Amino acid sequence: MGNLAEQAQPALADLDFLLQRFRQVRATSEAICAPLQVEDHVIQSMPDVSPPKWHLAHISWFFEAFLLKPYLGGYKPLDPIYDHLFNSYYETHGTPFPRARRGLISRPGVADVYRFRQHVDRAMADLLSSPPRQHAGEIMRRVELGLQHEQQHQELLLMDIKHILAQNPLQPAYRADLKPAPKLHQDRIRWHDFTGGVRHIGHAGDGFAFDCETPRHRQFVEDFQLADRLVTNGEYLSFIADGGYARSDLWLSDGWAQINQAGWHAPLYWQRHDDAWHEMTLAGLKPLDLDAPVCHVSFYEADAYARWAGARLPSEAEWEVAASDQPRRGNFLESDHLQPVATRMPHEGPAQLFGDVWEWTASAYRPYPGFRPLEGSLGEYNGKFMSGQMVLRGGCCATPESHIRATYRNFFQPAMRWQFAGLRLAREL
Amino acid sequence: MGNLAEQAQPALADLDFLLQRFRQVRATSEAICAPLQVEDHVIQSMPDVSPPKWHLAHISWFFEAFLLKPYLGGYKPLDPIYDHLFNSYYETHGTPFPRARRGLISRPGVADVYRFRQHVDRAMADLLSSPPRQHAGEIMRRVELGLQHEQQHQELLLMDIKHILAQNPLQPAYRADLKPAPKLHQDRIRWHDFTGGVRHIGHAGDGFAFDCETPRHRQFVEDFQLADRLVTNGEYLSFIADGGYARSDLWLSDGWAQINQAGWHAPLYWQRHDDAWHEMTLAGLKPLDLDAPVCHVSFYEADAYARWAGARLPSEAEWEVAASDQPRRGNFLESDHLQPVATRMPHEGPAQLFGDVWEWTASAYRPYPGFRPLEGSLGEYNGKFMSGQMVLRGGCCATPESHIRATYRNFFQPAMRWQFAGLRLAREL
Amino acid sequence: MGNLAEQAQPALADLDFLLQRFRQVRATSEAICAPLQVEDHVIQSMPDVSPPKWHLAHISWFFEAFLLKPYLGGYKPLDPIYDHLFNSYYETHGTPFPRARRGLISRPGVADVYRFRQHVDRAMADLLSSPPRQHAGEIMRRVELGLQHEQQHQELLLMDIKHILAQNPLQPAYRADLKPAPKLHQDRIRWHDFTGGVRHIGHAGDGFAFDCETPRHRQFVEDFQLADRLVTNGEYLSFIADGGYARSDLWLSDGWAQINQAGWHAPLYWQRHDDAWHEMTLAGLKPLDLDAPVCHVSFYEADAYARWAGARLPSEAEWEVAASDQPRRGNFLESDHLQPVATRMPHEGPAQLFGDVWEWTASAYRPYPGFRPLEGSLGEYNGKFMSGQMVLRGGCCATPESHIRATYRNFFQPAMRWQFAGLRLAREL
Amino acid sequence: MGNLAEQAQPALADLDFLLQRFRQVRATSEAICAPLQVEDHVIQSMPDVSPPKWHLAHISWFFEAFLLKPYLGGYKPLDPIYDHLFNSYYETHGTPFPRARRGLISRPGVADVYRFRQHVDRAMADLLSSPPRQHAGEIMRRVELGLQHEQQHQELLLMDIKHILAQNPLQPAYRADLKPAPKLHQDRIRWHDFTGGVRHIGHAGDGFAFDCETPRHRQFVEDFQLADRLVTNGEYLSFIADGGYARSDLWLSDGWAQINQAGWHAPLYWQRHDDAWHEMTLAGLKPLDLDAPVCHVSFYEADAYARWAGARLPSEAEWEVAASDQPRRGNFLESDHLQPVATRMPHEGPAQLFGDVWEWTASAYRPYPGFRPLEGSLGEYNGKFMSGQMVLRGGCCATPESHIRATYRNFFQPAMRWQFAGLRLAREL
């Protein structure tokens, strides 16, 4: 974001456009929660999951804390304690309410949270209709950041809703009317060649990007090959059938400890019924689609699968080299599958780089050379998480299309599985 | 209950009366939940707490499992999986859904649970209007057990609601219209003398009692003295002021470990604000009433207080000897305080034996000589909990009046504090 | 011990005798450790176990802390820090070194500990040769307590050594020259009848007893029957074969949780090799002796076995009634089996009441009516452990014969198994 | 190691030389343990620490498992169970004895372990005097690997001995005769400039290197600056005095959680006595030397310090660029300080790159492009640990001099502190 600070003053038309976009993004969050019952909004099914009503409030809090309070004269919070309850992890902005206790709070209830949203939305409309002149640039940059933040939470909402409903032996569907997957057969993997050399990696230019995508810098990349599509459920089943989860030589030491301690024998949400594999999806329990990309695997499982397949995961630089000249097309939130699906082949260049599943890379999430976090509390957005996590690239079936780009760095701890994460193979040329 | 098996066949008038009582008890449970928001019904604030909607469903399940399924021909469950979801701990009746996960289940929602209740209520009305002749006695006994069970859960509902709301920094009141405590000054403790000898302890006769209260048997009780009232908040404050929580010599070894590990320095729900003690109650946060009985203390704290005061806790036999010729009057659920209150003195015999707070006794919860649990799954009701728990006597401000009696044995693990529990002093004569 | 306070001044002959006994008891502790390697002295195999060199030092510390420091003018400790390192749990006497960390301390080494013992022994000889007149009675009482304390640790040493060596896949024997078990066939259980009534329970009179055995008081005991011998390994095998560990209806709720969480399917130290049961003993791994008493079972297992056998555990009062007129004969430390063995039948009255294995009773370890702990730090000896534990009676094959009596109350938490504990059946007459 | 496979057949002189080196390295391990008491050899002070006698046995096991068993005809193990007890983590070579239980095993004792060493040494002498011709090259490579492995454990032994003795309130010195630190004043940091570009990183050529140091490959490195010496205790004290441990904005999120959960306020082994900082060293407790390099800090602390100082940690490539043309001189095991010391300034190029303390880098421990682990069980040596760890460079005061080189990659989890680890600052040019 540091680079954005040098942008010029916004025109009125830009403000209008931004307000429009603000309303659109805000509406999408509410549309995502519309199919839920009140009770569904309250559950925290594990410490990493947040209750949907917390998400709805927190993304409003972000606008209140970083825009309304500093820039809207005379702004009155709806309830001062919300600043504590809905602060996620900004230690330099008061004391966040403990994450693992978010599911212990029944009030404010769902209706109260919507009242809070309306309160913030009205005030944001006021702010954007006549922003204080000297701060207009910073305000627009922060609004954009707030919208990108809300889009991240739209994906988190869908991940968390899936996890919450999957705890329930009733196995309720989030929506029965999701768009069904196309029936497509996936051919054997074909390899695309990429020539190495010094490459420019990271974001530069006008469009929005998170601070962690900058600065654009040079990396030396060796020649490599990348598979033309994602690994499928069918391929992953072969790995399981070959004893993949029982062969220590395929696993990182931490991974081997993890699968044994947790008793993992298959991806998250897979269930065996009547001698056939099924999968819990946002449309309820479904027979496993062998041509669809494998999803809800940890980094450890992705890494072990790649080793078993005689390949490896791509580095994030390799992935970015491959993706940088591909169009941003794919199975996103707007496709309304909310589940990865098989792709139509053949395809110019590697398919499924964007959408379907986040692709685990071989790269630890660490700062780029010369990285500088944003100033103030917003500097806590990305930088402080740069330890113990791996980078994932490309977005997934729950990511809003306008949210993703080739330089986007997502990150999760290597044992996490509730995000829509899969893998693509790479190897030396 | 073993003794109930010999009762005679019920008359039709008895059935009518029972159905009336059934409706009344069932209505009370719903009245208790009426002030809650939907969201409040979903929370499990610690593993020992259950979400209110789980309570509402479980007490209906009890009638389904032990009456409708065995005795009502053609009974159809509303949803077969409820038998799994709402079984609390009856291992011999299928596999109970794991207790600690009750708060992870958003469906069935509150409205569904009420539909389940109505379904059971209709079927129970059918069963009680024309019970199969040969089982009528057993049916009536089980209905009575089911109602006593529901009354236990009425108290549990209030304990759990208090705990759920107390987690919330908003400190919401369950009800703003509860009956306020009378302003009464408590005099110094006076001691009542009781002469020892062989005494009959436990339940016998026609009325209802749980299996663990039987058989009536003889115990030798030494001469003893019992305080004329409960220990007050004011007295407990003196214990705190005297360094009670910092003096290892006052504590059982397990208690000393517990208070240090948990960081306890006062009863549960006490909070210090602006240099004054307050207490979270079902009416919200209130200044501490120094004349009211101390409440929400663990056995360890009760035991340490008694040692500090140069006294001890009564044994359950001593308590029963004192209570057996006292009228069952006191501050119960029906008093609508839902909080222990000071008592009007003087009083014939010890005051506050019934109601206000459960009184920790010095006795471990173990079977009486000759104890036999009920037959079948109902045998799991009490007997299997006879380890690691202490007996409490007398009922509390959340106990329905018709539920308590002098022989009633309540039990909790010694570190538990969320029940309405306090203490009364005893000593050698 | 309160009752001991009234004893008269000791004669010189008594002092001589006490010094003799002092030397004898001290020598026994060292004889117990003689077969160990230096390395064996250092291990703490679980938090409940102490390294043998810690035991050797702690039992010397007891004499230093409670006799030498208060009563021997000019006494100089060998090292002041030992007072911290070897204080077990006397919170009112300084800060005990954390129990779970005893195995992290390599120094003082074994030779240093023996130097400490000699230092204490020399000073104790000085003290006993000319005790200050006005304290002579108290000194003699404390010496006796110190010796009883050391005898308790002799049994603990053997329990702990067994546990330490049993962790080792080499399965080393503590001693290869232990006296082998007699080959004796145990007949079916026969029942002895006991008539109920008001009975006197607990210690009174001149001999030594711990404070928790007092005061002698009355209890009402119903008629009961007691088995004529302990439950055998063969009988316990039938319980296992009958699915005892898989039937929830046989278990207390806490016991059921414990065996499932810990994965218990047999007593501690049992191992299955080549389709036959073996048992780790102080003489190494041995085939299971089906006629020997079952040992190393928890209270939960003893309780479940009794339920399976259609019987129950005796209360501690019942046990004491039965034992009070039996001679104190049995398989003790001095028998040099260090393992329970089958008994020669028939027998006047119940056999094996003393020695072989501690017998779990149905009684929680709580104070007798009118109980008063010793004054000062010694009051922490017993009283503060009176929660969460069950009483065991009768001593075992590792108990010094002179240490046990009919009123002796041992106690362990219900899940503990590393002590030599078994059971005897009781039932209603 | 893959690259070593192409080396030519060894000459006899090489074998002689290797045997000589074998004896020397083996003798060093025993010299390290010579000052220990038998009891010290048994302790495992935390799961990451191993008892010294385990180290002594394990480094012998390595030769048995990977050389004697496959290549010495007729080799008889001293005890077959040692193969289980002393396997550290080679899952493909039998089942390793659980790491956290190494401290529960008193036998084999210290004398037995030395017998095992002699047994292995004799057999190794046999093998090296006439190795089977067709395997001679592989044998020599494995012997070298075994010796490098033993050198790693020499450093681990010193780390573990320090940790073991530091648990003890007696604070015993490992050796009183260690060489004292020179009294040297450290000037302010000066910065060395390094010009960026494509650089070759990693090992190539004849000498020994671990597989994880290969293959040599290109990386693009930006211009950077490196401090001319390590961060000192004095500088680190300023960080503490400035509230470093209380300012969330200086810390990675995982680091902030770690220091708060563990209660860290200073490096490991620092203690405050009489208002002055002291440090537990292998020579016992010493006043903190303000000019000596700070040591025993976690990655999180190193990272937070660097942020506080307005700088950052170097990447491992940057470090290697700087070190690759520096002589391998420094404060190593052979210097006999066994503690980092101040350096004599000025210095050609950055000082203290080798020896004193391992330098935390900013780089996660991940495979180099094209990395291939060794074949078979030896492939578990490095590769499987490539997750969740950070790279450290340069060796320390406990590293044998012949063991280190500029390409050497050490790795630890970011919260680990018991290794001799400190830091050097870097920044953008």
TrEMBL record, chains A, B, C, D:
What pathway is this protein said to act in by its record? Answer: Amino-acid biosynthesis; ergothioneine biosynthesis
Which branch of life, at top level? Bacteria
> Matching Gene3D superfamilies, A to Z?
paralog of FGE (formylglycine-generating enzyme)
Q: Which InterPro entries match?
A: CTDL_fold (IPR016187), DinB-like (IPR024775), EgtB (IPR017806), Sulfatase_Mod_Factor_Kinase (IPR051043), SUMF_dom (IPR005532), SUMF_sf (IPR042095)
Which GO BP terms sit in this record?
ergothioneine biosynthetic process
Q: Does the keyword Transmembrane helix apply?
A: no
Question: Coiled coil located at which positions?
Answer: none
User: Where does the Sulfatase-modifying factor enzyme-like domain start and stop, copy by copy?
Assistant: 196-342, 348-427
Q: What are the protein's UniProt keywords?
A: Iron, Oxidoreductase
Annotated DinB-like domain residues: 22-155
Task: Name it.
Answer: Ergothioneine biosynthesis protein EgtB
> What species is this protein from?
Stutzerimonas marianensis
Classification of source organism: Bacteria, Pseudomonadati, Pseudomonadota, Gammaproteobacteria, Pseudomonadales
